[in-house]
Design goal:
Elements (H helix, E strand, L loop, with lengths): L2 E6 L8 H16 L4 E6 L10 H7 L8 H6 L1 H12 L2 E7 L7 H10 L6 E3 L8 E3 L4 E8 L18 H8 L4 E9 L7 H24 L1
Parallel strand pairs: 1-2, 1-3, 3-6, 6-7
Antiparallel strand pairs: 4-5
Helix pairs in contact: 1-7
Length: 215
């Protein structure tokens, strides 16, 4: 049995392209693998708390010495990390906001990328002291954006701070393989946008087959 964790990050509940992509991916995955377990987090509607000075202090306090208040501060982080740890496949459906990720998605990442939980820190490793503790997961990134040309060699490649950022931190989510489907031209609403949507949906079955083969 494979465990699929789906993170929805769009602030929109209606007419969200990334949400629709995520829903289609989930439906097709579970249709082909109905015995798999599905975990869902709608962080676009219910964003995780931002980390704070008190949260950071709690993280760096040894577990046996934390106060009840500190344990409460870390309770959501613990749950989110449990979901992440259990997952074999992580699907993140998210729009691009201002050339980067929504604040809710950054908040989720900050809650789960946590020292002594999803990575260790050891200065004996020299200039690269961080080491992930999780591995073997696949990440499916389903994105939408208003403009276009954010992919490799695209006209706006250097303005893309969504996919590259997520790929950079993905190793601390335990990710070994990253797959991405993007819809562009949303603000133009022309035939290019229509073709981009069609291409995205046509790519989902092949992606699922590829991931299932490697999982």
């Amino acid at each position: 049995m494979t465990v699929l964790l789906h993170i929805d990050a769009s602030a929109r509940k209606e007419r969200s392209i990334s949400r629709a992509l995520g829903e289609t991916f989930k439906h097709q995955w579970l249709s082909s693998k109905p015995a798999d377990k599905f975990i869902y987090r709608d962080i676009g509607s219910t964003p995780p708390d931002f980390i704070s000075e008190s949260w950071i202090a709690a993280v760096f306090t040894p577990e046996g010495k934390r106060t009840d208040e500190q344990n409460l501060l870390l309770a959501l982080s613990d749950v989110l990390i449990e979901e992440l740890t259990e997952a074999d496949v992580i699907a993140i459906s998210t729009p691009m906001y201002n050339y980067g990720m929504p604040a809710s998605l950054k908040a989720w990442i900050d809650q789960v990328v946590r020292v002594n939980k999803t990575f260790t820190f050891d200065l004996n490793r020299g200039d690269f002291p961080l080491e992930p503790t999780l591995s073997g997961k696949s990440l499916v990134l389903l994105t939408s954006c208003g403009e276009f040309g954010f992919g490799e060699n695209g006209t706006r490649e250097d303005m893309n701070h969504l996919g590259p950022h997520i790929q950079t931190v993905s190793k601390y989510l335990g990710v070994d393989e990253v797959y991405e489907i993007s819809v562009e031209y949303q603000e133009f609403g022309d035939n290019r946008h229509k073709r981009s949507i069609e291409s995205a949906y046509e790519s989902i079955p092949g992606m699922i087959k590829s991931i299932a083969t490697n999982t």
